[in-house]
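#structure-requests
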Amino acid sequence: MKILVDRLKDSPTDFAFRETEAWRTEAEEMIPELRGPLAAPIEAKLRAYRMGEDIYLEGRLAGAIELQCGRCLVRYRAPLSEPFRLVLSPAGSRVPVEPEAAQSLARFGMCLGDELETGWFQGYEIDFGGFFREIVTLAIPVQPLCSEQCKGLCPLCGADRNADPCECGE
């Protein structure tokens, strides 16, 4: 999931990435929702080009993850299709104030600014593994639902109200 900075030109270059086993293992440690059966591999397509000293990137991260519904506890497949746009400026001698950003700059050759759409790069190679994990993390809903109409479990008897209505009163 890397691109070489010095090969980028003023005209757009297309890249396609598919998750590797190493990326998946590291992502599962950081994102518990990715553990378990793979619904569909995480893939990214991006277009990159130079704008003067800056690098402009736009693309889409796609795949599917398996989540557990917060109401009825059923496991379901959630599609993942997240567009992204990013402008990276040369870091030069700048060092990010936040230790996590400085580590990202050293490890991946890039770090994000306060906004997800801006950041810095340094070196001749940019690894997008951390950036793609960030996108997946932000795409996971706080309260996953198998459907908006999910009736959930009965708080008294535990029956799945989507399958059969229970005899308990509200």
